[in-house]
Amino acid sequence: MAYDLEEQEQLASLKAWWNQYGNLTSWVLIAGLAAYSGWTGWNYYQRSQAAQASALYDELQHAVDAKDAAKVLRAAGDMESRYAGTAYAPMGALLAAKSAFDANDLKSAKAQLQWASEHGDEEYKSVAKLRLAGVLLDEKAYDEALKVLASGIAPQFAGAVADRKGDVLAAQNKLAEARAAYQAALDATDKKNPGRQLIELKFEAIGGAVPAAKDAA
């Protein structure tokens, strides 16, 4: 059926527009489809990584329960190399570190804590640094322990950091500095925190004076 004059004009205008902007429109559409495809693909990849990491974390937990030290370290290493971008990797490193520490394998414990302190979110890094400082304290590597505690720990762990510093300084017989650290730990620790009593005991043991609690009105 022949087009009438108005339809022919509209078709001519459409052709002229397409000749001018058609290629650009096609590329914009292709770019949009590619971006959407990439976004959905990335989400799928992330879900897949998390699912596989979760299964490996379960395997790690079973190895810890079975006290199979070699399998624990192997599973942790697999998680760190293959699923470092998931939350399970630093979780696995912390669990493997505890298993190694309990088995008196301080070298492996430090290696796992060092990895966790460099990966994961701020909280995992902070916990790893605090535990690493504790292992170094046990090894009498006091300066190294203080260096670990000096930076890179989230503000909400201020009380725990000061407490651990107090332990290190007390072990060095730097009692005045240790008392200052324990005082800082008490200042940063909520009175309802069950760990506060232990800080008070250590503080008093090196000559600190804990203020008496005020009676409720």
UniProtKB/TrEMBL annotation:
One of its GO terms (molecular function) is protein-containing complex binding. It is found in: Cell membrane. It is a single-pass type II membrane protein. It comes from the Bacteria. The chain crosses the membrane at residues 24-45. InterPro entries: SecYEG/CpoB_TPR, TPR-like_helical_dom_sf, YfgM. Keywords: Cell membrane, Chaperone, Membrane, Transmembrane, Transmembrane helix. Residues 15-207 form the Ancillary SecYEG translocon subunit/Cell division coordinator CpoB TPR domain. GO terms for cellular component: plasma membrane. It holds the Pfam family TPR_21. Belongs to the YfgM family. PANTHER family: ANCILLARY SECYEG TRANSLOCON SUBUNIT (PTHR38035:SF1), UPF0070 PROTEIN YFGM (PTHR38035). This is Ancillary SecYEG translocon subunit. The lineage of its organism: Bacteria, Pseudomonadati, Pseudomonadota, Betaproteobacteria, Burkholderiales.
